[in-house]
Specification:
- This protein has helices at residues 7-34, 41-50, 52-63.
- With 68 residues, the protein is mainly α.
- It has a domain at 36-68.
- It is elongated.
- The N and C termini lie far apart (58 Å).
Length: 68
């Protein structure tokens, strides 16, 4: 049983990792600059960082401040 990670798998995961990190950075910058609709900034930053992709999507869906 070979448990080593193949080069093809790593190359396949790189775009996904880049998208995830970019989304997290975008969300954190948005949280700091624009504020949040509910909870507080520290809680949303923790959610975005610890829940990874789902946390960023949750912030964009329900946590963003929706100024008119």
């Amino acid at each position: 049983m070979n448990l080593s990670i193949s080069k093809e798998l790593i190359l396949a995961l790189v775009p996904i990792i880049i998208i995830q990190l970019s989304l997290q950075i975008f969300c954190i910058i948005s949280i700091v600059r624009k504020g949040v609709a509910n909870l507080n900034k520290a809680a949303w930053i923790a959610i975005v960082l610890l829940v990874n992709f789902i946390g960023a999507i949750l912030y964009l869906a329900i946590g963003r401040r929706k100024d008119a």
